[in-house]
Amino acid sequence: MTLEPGSLRTPLCDLLGCEYPIILAGMGGVARAELAAAVANAGGFPTLGMVREAPSLIASEIRAYRRLSNRPFAVNLIPAATDPGLLDQQIETCLAMEVEVFSFFWDVVPEAVARVKTAGALLLHQVGTLRAAREAEAAGADVLIAQGQDAGGHVHGRTPTFDLLRAVLETTALSVVASGGISNGKGLARALSFGAQGVQCGTAFLATAESFAHDYHKQRVVTAQGEDTVLTDGFVLNWPKGSVVRVLRNSVTETFGPALMGHDPERIAHEVIARDGLIPRLRQSTDSPLRTTTGDLEQMPLYCGTGAGEIDEIVPAAQRLNTLCAEAQARLASGRQTPVGRT
């Protein structure tokens, strides 16, 4: 892949039907129709974060998105962390609504990959290890998203983003996207210089006007630095044992002391600390505070990547995307990042 100086267009843009090689991460609860449409209409590629959501909500969010944008989009599901019966309904709903792009994460489930591929859909698979990258490619993924440990939210591996990116690029001919800790144009330019065909951003878009995250969560991200985040498996209720997340430090992580890992969900008390309407939210669950959440928000997991220090205000998603692109173009045009990707 060769880029003209200052140009950001890569083959990934042609594959996904977007103008800029920036993917909105499929953040559960946060990446809903309003945010996805804002990113799409600004030229990025959007993902609806529908992990373990009811098929009825998936259908309503797809309809809402299509009222706001006519651009291509993906739906993010997590087969390995979803009840098989629910997963079957989720995929069926998406296919019935003619979803053409899926985004999967966590352990590779070949049967789920085969189902969407057989239906003719494009599949992006986010991976956190070289082994998972190989498994996803073997199963039929079209694009690999290399997620490093710098990412906010659920983190599948323990390798820094650009180390993992380099390793994945060396072992695959598929399009590869970098994800984790990338919140500005410098990170985008660097990823392209490594040979990535784009980046996926979560935290950068969580702190935007259209994000469905609670304002408290957004403000905490704005005031945070990368060193204010920690990796822990302490927010694990609703997910498999040992599932690690990157969150902002809070009163719950302080109670862990140095024992950030090794939490057994079977031994965690089910203490209700917040609610979304009638739905209770438990202390140490994976549920982050949304617009609809009331209760003790400070104790909830505040997902945030190490790139938080580059985010100092809440702005419209289009503005954030445009700033990312302008910064990257400037760096590439000045030669501060020389594209060295594969041809």
TrEMBL record:
Coiled coil: none annotated. Keywords: Flavoprotein, FMN, Monooxygenase, Oxidoreductase. It comes from the Bacteria. Transmembrane segments: none annotated. It holds the Pfam family NMO. SUPFAM superfamilies: Inosine monophosphate dehydrogenase (IMPDH). GO terms for molecular function: nitronate monooxygenase activity. CDD domains: NPD_like. This is Nitronate monooxygenase.
